[in-house]
Structure formats: structure tokens, C-alpha cells
Design brief:
Layout (H helix, E strand, L loop, with lengths): L8 H34 L4 E8 L4 E8 L5 E10 L2 E4 L7 H8 L9 E3 L7 E2 L4 E7 L3 H16 L3 E7 L5 E5 L6 E2 L2
Antiparallel strand pairs: 1-2, 2-7, 3-4, 3-6, 3-8, 5-7, 8-9, 9-10
Amino acid sequence: MGKKITWNSERLLSLSAMTISFATLIIFIYQTNLIRKQNYLSILPYLSISTSDNSAANSFSISLDNYGVGPAIIESSTISYLGIKEDLREYDNELLKYLKAKAPILDSIASISYSTLDKGVAIPAGEKYNILTIFNSEEDYKLYKRILEDLIEKGLYFEIKYKSIQDEHWVISNTSQGPLKLD
């Protein structure tokens, strides 16, 4: 027959130490997972395409707003009109240049401010990135609004792909309710 195990204080102490060590390992693994999730959420960008239309001040603007807590890095911009999809790089990544190609009358607008959507542009958390602003002139404002509404009615669609610093990818478009994760 087998030996009978005698429980003395040394055996109880070693068993207790091993149990505590195992519990500590489980807690450590759980905390590491929580920290990883927190890190992931702490750098998550959330881009939104916003428009501002102020008829009293004769201004209209389109911007990208980063409501997330990490930077959004632009990957690419594509635009589609009348069913023809084009890369915005063909227009030097300028929405204005694309719109002028589709509606040359927009060349007459004088009071305008715009930015490019170049690959690698980083939009910091909590910041706005102005894509296009028409301001000061009532004539320019009304012309731009009329042309833009006409282009959208005929199917103007654009999308912007961006990523986080952890290389996770999203896409936002002028018709989406928010960013869609691509990975």
C-alpha cells in the first residue's frame, strides 16, 4: 500500500504558496489583457465628415473631425460621380480641383480656402481638418451650394480610408453614418 501523507506545517505552507502563486499568475494575465484593451481604446481615431452651412455669413465648409482619442492617418481618398470612380490623387488630392473639373463654373469663386487629402496626413484627436470652405461672398456661396447640391443629386460620392497608429483601418464616406472598420 501507499504511504500515508502527513500534513505538517511545512507542507501546508508550501501548498499555500503554490496556490497563491497560481492565483497571482491568473490575475496578472487578466490585468495584462485589460491593459492591452485600454491601450487599444486610448488611441482609437473616429473620423466624421461634417459640413457647416451658415447662410447669414455666406459660408459653407466641409471638414474631417476626429472625435476619437488617437490620430487618424489618411490612407486614400476616392470619389465617384455618374458611376465613374476616380482616385483623388489624379487631382493632386484636392476636392476643389475635382469639383472644378466636373463643374468648371466653380473657377469663378474667389473667396475659398481648401486643404489636400494627401496620404499620410495625420488628423490629431479632437481636431478638425478643413477640406473646403467658401466664405464672404454671397454670390460665391450660392453658386457653390447650387453646384454641390446638383452634383450630389447626380450621385457624387466620396470615401476616405484612414488608419490608426496601430495600423487598424477604417473607411468613412459622405453617405455613411460613421466609420466602418475594414480589418
